[in-house]
Amino acid sequence: MEIERKYLIDRLPDGLDAWPSRPIEQAYLCTDPVVRVRQDGDSFYLTYKGRGLMAREEYNLPLTEEAYRHLLAKADGNILTKVRYRIPLEGTGLTVELDVFSGKFDGLVLAEVEFPDQETAESFTPPEWFGREVTFTGEYQNSRLSQL
């Protein structure tokens, strides 16, 4: 089960380059249900995500690079490219995954925070540098962006 909240980011946090980052490329074979292929650094995955906005099922299956490239060629819509930064939220045990998009969505920056349970997610107070929450609108789900 994946439990996460998502926010638009209007300004990048100070010292962003000090945090670990990696490139991500992903595309969608289907958006209902969500079936995604992703290259995350040197790793490749096929992911299934169930329905939902803040909480939903998620399953990852490792792929070879050859299988990833084969499936990528069959994807519908946009191939999304971004750099993901992992920023620990001091004193919470939580980590922000900050995605800085390039390509068609250059300039878009989204932050996601994944939670161990629904109660922690519901009581979360975002840092002051977070912008508008978009968890419950679905408008910034990557699967939706892939179809714009």
Could you explain the architecture of this structure?
The protein has 148 residues and is mainly beta. It is 11% helix and 46% strand. The chain contains three helices and nine strands, in the order ββββββαβββαα. It has helices spanning 65-72, 118-122, 142-145, and strands at 2-8, 21-31, 34-40, 43-49, 55-56, 58-62, 76-89, 94-102, 109-114. A nine-stranded antiparallel β-sheet has the order 5-1-9-8-7-2-3-4-6. The chain starts with a strand and ends with a helix.
Task: Please write out the topology.
Blueprint lengths: L1 E7 L12 E11 L2 E7 L2 E7 L5 E2 L1 E5 L2 H8 L3 E14 L4 E9 L6 E6 L3 H5 L19 H4 L3
Antiparallel strand pairs: 1-5, 1-9, 2-3, 2-7, 3-4, 4-6, 7-8, 8-9
Unreliable stretches, pLDDT < 50, 5 or more residues?
A: none
Helix run count = 3
Oligomer designation:
single chain
Helix content bin: 10-25%
Q: In which order are the strands of the major sheet placed?
A: 5-1-9-8-7-2-3-4-6
Give, in order, the helices and strands: EEEEEEHEEEHH
- Strand percent estimate: over 45%
Largest sheet: 9 strands, antiparallel
- Could you give the count of β-strands? 9
Class from secondary-structure proportions:
mainly beta
Shape: globular
Q: Give the overall pLDDT as a whole number.
A: 96
Radius of gyration: 15 Å
Looking at this protein, list some descriptive labels.
148 residues, mainly beta, nine-stranded antiparallel sheet, CYTH-like_dom_sf, CYTH_domain, CYTH domain-containing protein, NeuTTM/CthTTM-like
